[in-house]
Amino acid sequence: MKTFVTAARWIAEAGRIVAFTGAGISVESGIPTFRGEGGLWSRYDPKVLELGYFYEEPEAAWRVIKELFYDTLTKAPAPNAAHRLLAELERAGKLIGVITQNIDGLHQKAGSRNVIEFHGTAKRLVCLACRKKVAFLSEMLEVLPPRCGCGGVLKPDFIFFGEGIGPENYQKSVAWLNEADLLLIVGTTGEVMPASMLPFEAKKARVIEINPEPTRYSEEKTDLFLQAKAGEAALALAKRLLLKL
Ligand code: NAD
Asked: Does residue 8 sit in the same domain as residue 104?
């Protein structure tokens, strides 16, 4: 298809690529999105991720959070071709880094090193009392809520509704985007603020977007829209770039 040929050419021509990814990039790895058809919010109440509710009802909140995130994560999902393409472009010295809204750690698992986890990660827990951070282990969820050695309740180290974004993550993302000559937006609706504003910081970059559905970016920011699943698009691009994924 002509659009894939053009996208592959733009990637070949670029030297400072930045990727901005959302839940859609991990769908083909078996992790559902929040919104849209089959999305988690069609089955669960988003209040479990509100900070106030978590403080009041940590056990009830954890029961759902475990089912939403940790039961899938402990099945050790594998990165797909889209995660691998980004890791390969970094290895080739063409990609500055990945800014992800995801908390699943799949970019790192695919080999990406420069990853900004804009919303934090599910792979670490933080104590609400002493703020100590600990790596997540599945046995920690045998009794809910999990507790720190100090007795405090442990919370996933990702951003809940009502929490602020770390200023370092924001500043580093903007610095990368200011430098970028190509922005790849993959699998995000662009509805979660302030992450959703980040692509608009890439003022000098061509923008390729990959998503099976058009989004706000397709109208407002994207130069080339690849209407496709992330993994399928990655394979099509890799073929044209002569990359083995
Ligand atoms: P979203 O749920 O709002 O949107 C997902 C997007 O992915 C949609 O635009 C959809 O069309 C697209 N999509 C669906 N299947 C796709 C595929 N195979 N390939 C490419 N795109 C596909 O997601 P969001 O706005 O990215 O996320 C909201 C917040 O929830 C973010 O912080 C997100 O990281 C978090 N979240 C993370 C995970 C994860 O870590 N895997 C899962 C669910 C939600």
From this structure: yes
Whether 119 sits among the annotated catalytic residues: the reply is yes
Question: Quick one: 145 and 25 in the same domain?
Answer: no
Residue nearest to atom 16 of ligand 1 (CA): 24
CA of 20 to the centre of ligand 1 (A): 11
Q: What is the pLDDT of residues 14-44, one digit of tens each?
A: 999 999 999 999 999 998 887 766 666 667 7
> Both 36 and 21 in a single domain?
no
CB 199 within 8 A of CB 217: yes
pLDDT in tens, 119-175: 999 999 999 999 999 999 999 999 999 999 999 999 999 999 888 888 999 999 999
Same domain for 175 and 227, yes or no, is yes
Residue nearest to atom 14 of ligand 1 (CA): 24
Segments of 31-89 assigned E as strands: none
